[in-house]
Amino acid sequence: MRQATVYIDSNALQYNLNRVKQLAPTAQIVSMVKANAYGHGVKDCLAALADSDAFGVACLEEALEIRALGYQQPITLIEGIFSSDEMQIAVDNKIEVIVHQQQQLDWLRAHKDAYLANDLKVWVKLNSGMNRLGFKVPEIIDVINSLKAEGFSCVLAMHFANADADNHPLNDQQRVQFLQVKEACAPVMGSCCNSAAIYKWPELNFDFVRPGIMLYGASPFADKTVHDLDLKPVMTFTAEIIALNSIQAGESVGYGSTFVADKAMDLAIVSTGYGDGYPRAFPKQNYVVVNGQPTRVIGRVAMDMIAIDATGLDLKLGTEVELWGQNRLVDDVAEANGTIGYELLCRLSARPSRKTK
Ligand SMILES: Cc1ncc(COP(=O)(O)O)c(C=O)c1O
Fold first, then answer.
1. What burial class does residue 272 get, using C-beta atoms within 10 Å of its C-beta: 0-12 exposed, 13-18 middle, 19+ buried?
2. Does 39 share its domain with 136?
3. pLDDT at 297
4. Domain total for the chain?
5. Is 222 inside a domain boundary?
6. 212 ligand 1 Cβ < 6 A
7. Average pLDDT of the residues of the chain
8. What separation in angstroms does the CA of 327 have from each of 6, 212, 265, 287?
9. Measuring CA to CA, how many Å separate 163 from each of 6, 143, 307?
């Protein structure tokens, strides 16, 4: 059997969840498990994250999967529902919605009695400058105050566009608007912190924090590693060596013959490629770790295979190579590929086998 394997470390997930608890001790934790738990596999991740106060997902299908697996915690649809018929399903399954535009308010109001009877909160999204979803100031103040007057229990929700950046002017604008609306609608619950904001602005944790990437042990910051943040990588992606070769100076490797050896060298061929979700672009030199040692990826990444420099490494057929994990951080692989850890984790294909410990 072809060996490309994704290992999920449940203890690391629990460790990272505890880090959120340390950093935001008074807030409820809405663990973001959208996109199949950032590519980690929602079923096993939910088991490890069962101590979360609530879960956050991007659509009704993801929420229903959580219910089907038997979890009873509140679930928030962070983009709300996408059609009126989804509202009844959300209510029946005790799923909370965000409202970010008028049509969603109408759908909510059409199901008001059932929504309130099920004791569901409504999350109202502030657009404070990210300009994707939400009501702007001052409209949102009317929206929240009207919903409150109708008996709804509201959470003022906002998402920072630059929580990972130091001194971005939009951070101040977003924070100020959030606080302004919170005061104008007082008392109202609040939620504006993702992973980066949980680290940066403990004073903004309020009632609910919404950690995503930090739970999975990748860094929200370009200039801080998960080790700096005291987080543990949850996913280790490995593949096995399936062939060993030697080439002479002047010989090339792989599609496009982009790599030409300048001296004699040994190669190991590893059973992974972009068909598994291992990225192909690599504008910078990329590395894997084998037997605890970093070594170069050589030539182009193909659909099913990569070549690595095996010179002086005494590698064997069947040796497991770490593509990312504890020793080769997914954030570093992403950086070499001109992207972010989030994307590499989410775009793993279904092909690698999965093992949870
Ligand atoms: C509304 C919202 N909250 C929280 C998160 C979690 O963000 P992060 O993974 O950076 O912690 C996301 C992720 O995209 C989001 O869209």
1. buried
2. yes
3. 98
4. 2
5. no
6. yes
7. 97
8. 15, 22, 24, 11
9. 29, 26, 38
In a domain, 76, yes or no: yes
- Binding annotation for substrate: 132, 303
What pLDDT is stored for residue 2 in this prediction?
82
223 assigned to some structural domain: no
85-92 vs 102-110: helix axis angle to the nearest 10? 60
Three-class SS string for 232-270?
A: CCCEEEEEEEEEEEEECCCCEECHHHCEECCCCEEEEEE
When computed from its CA atoms, the radius of gyration of the chain, rounded to whole angstroms, is: 23
Residues with Cβ within 8 Å of residue 175, at least 6 apart in sequence: 201, 204
271 secondary structure, DSSP code: S
32 lines ligand 1 (CB under 6 A): yes
DSSP H helices in 42-168: 42-48, 60-68, 85-92, 102-110, 112-117, 139-149
Per-residue pLDDT for 1 more than 90? no
Whether residues 119 and 210 fall in one domain: yes
355 catalytic residue (yes or no) = no
Domain boundary among the residues 183, 216, 249 is at: 216
CA-CA distance, 310 to 308, in Å (whole number)?
6
Q: What is the mean pLDDT of residues 153-163?
A: 97
Q: Which two tokens stand for residue 253?
A: 């490797």
Please state, for a pLDDT cut of 70, what percent of the chain lies above it.
100
- Residue 79 — very low, low, confident or very high, per pLDDT cuts 50/70/90? very high
**How many helices (H) and strands (E) are present in the chain, helices listed first?**
12, 18
Q: Is the CB of 211 under 6 A from ligand 1?
A: yes
Q: Give the residue whose CA is nearest to atom 2 of ligand 1.
A: 159
User: Which of 255, 284, 316, 357 does the annotation list as catalytic?
Assistant: 255
Cis upstream peptide for 169 (omega within 30°) = no
Q: Residue 274 catalytic? A: no
CA 63 to chain centre: 16
Its domain, for residue 331, covers 235-356
Q: What residue owns the CA closest to ligand 1's atom 8?
A: 212
- pLDDT, tens digit (0-9, with 9 covering 90-100), for 178-213: 999 999 999 999 999 999 999 999 999 999 999 999
Is 15 inside any structural domain? yes
Ligand 1 centre distance from Cα of residue 59 (Å): 14
